[in-house]
Amino acid sequence: MRFPLIPFALGAMVVCAYAQPAIRGFSPNETAAQLAIESKLKRIPDAQRLRSYLKRLSSGPHHAGSPGARAVAEYALDLFREWGLDAQIETFEVTLPYPGDMRVEMVAPETYRAPLREPSIPEDRDTAHPDLLPAFNAYSGSGDVTAPLVYVNYGIPEDYVQLKRMGVDVRGKVVIARYGKSWRGTKPKTAQEHGAAACLIYSDPHDDGFFQGDVYPTGPFRPAAGVQRGSVLDMPLYVGDPLTPGWASEPGARRLPREQAATILRIPVAPLSHTDAARLMKHLGGPVAPEDWRGAMPFTYHAGPGPATVRVRVESDWAARPLHNVIATITGAEEKDQWVLYGNHHDAWGPGASDPSSGAAVVLETARSLAELRKSGWRPRRTIKLALWDGEEFGLIGSTEWVEKHRAPLLRQAVAYLNTDATGKGRLLAGGTATLEAFLSQVAAEYLDGKQNSDVLRLGSLGAGSDYVAFLNHAGIASLNLGFEAAASGVYHSNYDTFDWYTRFSDGDFRSGRKLTALMATLVTRLAGAPLLPFEFTRLARNLDNYTVELEAHYAPENLSLEDWKPAVRKLAAAARTFEAEYAAAVARKRGEWNREQLAPVNEAIYRSERALTLRDGLPGRPWYRHALTAPGLYTGYSAKTLPGVREAAEAGRWTEANLQARLASHAVRKLADELTAVARSLKALP
User: Fold this and answer.
1) Is 610 among the catalytic positions?
2) Based on C-alpha coordinates, what's the Rg of the chain?
3) 20 to 30 A from 529, CA-CA: which of 167, 473, 523, 556?
4) How far apart, in whole angstroms, are the C-alpha atoms of residue 616 and residue 619?
């Protein structure tokens, strides 16, 4: 699944009156030893090994629930164990709909049936594998609809406002939307809410096809018959198995009836190539589409309805199928009950060379690098868990079920969750929680411009694009999401995301993959080895100040009251400054070993700080999402909405609800401030 990585932005670093140690969380006396470990670690990753992993992982289709996915999991398990790591496969039984009887055909003014399969490319034998899935959208509603066609641009809420101005009614119609501008599932969700009977989603060549450049196999962009598959589960409500929201989907588990699952759509949905879309859309009449609605197909774009009349039939195989998460563990030498976690998914819609195998290969090489480091006598202070998740493409399912099963120990023991997904060879991109921004800035500086402490990196908020969601939004675990930018995404979620495409048009020499491995291994070992966890809170306070400015700019004070919010933010800012001063002072004066009985509760309080920002009853209408400060937007999905309870109520004009959510968010911020104040006192007491 593609996730919204945010380019690092450079800004002036906060200047403090006290000297910072060379590595955050390590005393001056400990820094040299840690840097020596990292220097050794960075020499281990090997580009040829990354290439071999990627070739094996993408050698055939391995969609969740398939024999191919099981084979990939067993391959990873064998590697982990070969390297001497304690590893196991943890299996869940989840609802994974596969395509059954599917049909998209025009019945008037002429007849045409879309093949719903991508033709193979002779130059790339991986595109001809017999087990490749046809094009479909997982968790589409079932149905058989025949109705006039309406073009709805990107199919986002503002497009329906424009259609109303144009006098176009979508009720009872088949709508066709182009990919882009929002999470895939937003398009049929919005169509359903406006009364449409079915939804088609196509890839316009203006967005990722020939308009952008040469198409595969000549170039990296989407061929005329290329189709973007993907889930249309309503992930902003909750992720994971739609029949087990909030509890693990294991054999024998309680399951909702499918018609009660809020995240499964009711209308049929299917994806199309632009070749198929053109055959339908060139027969549309009605108003000419606005200029910014027009793509690159060779005809005038009209909105309809009709005269094109289209039949959409979708029936799925709704069987429960196995998911196989692979978990490797390196037990900590001192704080084995504090966990640092790093994961990437292993399931794909097709060969999946870029998404997800490029990132899965990095997890494997990170694991090997840590295993090699162990041979030299290194052991982490804290326990490290490395994961390859299954079922991510269907709706972040493998990671979510694992978090729901292990939620109690995770709440007690998880220090942070680090995530990768597809990676390429462009800029280093990232999103994450602000409490890890200073830590990441220090580690990642050498991967940008070589500056170590002269600049800081701004992390974007995380939406719902990858496996961090259950960790951050449900369990309140500080998270990071990292990767190098892909040069182009023209084969995204298609059968053309192959080893040949990746090695020709993305990170073909695996230099960026090697660099990402070194970065992830360093992040993991620092978090696992820091005597004092390197969390920092002034950047979080800065973000909250920015939220205040945005709220005041968008909403009138007579409607939205910030009388609780502003003092809470000021209180957190003061507590963050006190914490920072005591943190720096404690590290600077350290000479010998800290007493474990004194240090362990301090670190536990630091890493559990993110839990203070979770809401007991969750967000309005979607209680699975618990984080007060960030969630995927109800109509953005991949993109985050900050202060979601407040903003979404305000945007809908529900001011009583918005003000209640502002008070609840204020309470969470004050709670965090109180906890930081207590931790600062504990830091001051350290010898």
Assistant:
1) no
2) 25
3) 473
4) 9
Which H or E run contains 100? strand 98-108
- Asked whether residue 257 falls in the same domain as residue 331, the answer is no
Residues 305 and 350 grouped into a single domain: no
Tell me, yes or no, whether 49 lies in a domain. Answer: yes
Residues 331 and 474 in one domain: yes
Instruction: Give, for 640, the enclosing helix (H) or strand (E).
Output: strand 640-642
Q: Which amino acid is at 33?
A: A
CA torsion 66→68→72→77, rounded to 10°? Answer: 60
Exposed, middle or buried: residue 676 (CB in 10 Å: 0-12, 13-18, 19+)?
A: buried
d(CA 598, CA 580): 18
Question: What amino acid is encoded at 437 in this protein?
Answer: E
Let me know whether 276 and 424 are in one domain. no
**Among the listed residues 312, 461, 478, 496, the one whose alpha carbon sits nearest the alpha carbon of residue 410:** 478
Query: Cis peptide leading into 305, omega within 30 of 0?
Result: yes
**Cβ-based neighbours of 55, under 8 Å, separated by 6 or more:** 499
- 287, 166 contact by CB (below 8 A): yes
User: Are 21 and 106 within one domain?
Assistant: no
Instruction: Indicate the helix (H) or strand (E) that contains 243.
Output: none
Measured CA to CA in angstroms, residue 324 lies from 195, 319, 475 at distances of 38, 16, 22
Which residue carries 């170590």 as its tokens? 452
Per the DSSP assignment, residues forming a β-bridge with 325 are: 90
Two structure tokens written together for 567 = 């003092």
Instruction: List average pLDDT for each run of 10 residues in the chain, which is 687 residues long.
Output: 47 35 85 94 97 98 98 98 98 97 97 97 96 97 98 98 98 97 95 98 97 96 97 97 97 95 97 98 98 98 97 97 98 96 98 98 98 96 98 98 98 98 92 96 76 61 95 98 86 97 97 97 98 97 97 93 97 98 93 86 97 98 98 90 97 97 98 98 94
Contact 50, 513 (CB under 8 A): yes
pTM: 0.95
Does one domain contain both 293 and 350? no
Q: Are residues 477 and 418 both part of a single domain?
A: yes
Q: Which domain holds residue 168?
A: 99-315
Residue 1 lies in a domain: no
Instruction: Tell me whether residue 107 is in a domain.
Output: yes
Q: What are phi and psi of 14, to 5 degrees?
A: -65, 125
Which of 392, 393, 580, 610 is catalytic? The answer is 392
List all residues 6 or more positions away from 655 whose beta carbon is below 8 Å from its beta carbon.
Answer: 559, 560, 649
* Residue 596 and residue 448 share a domain: no
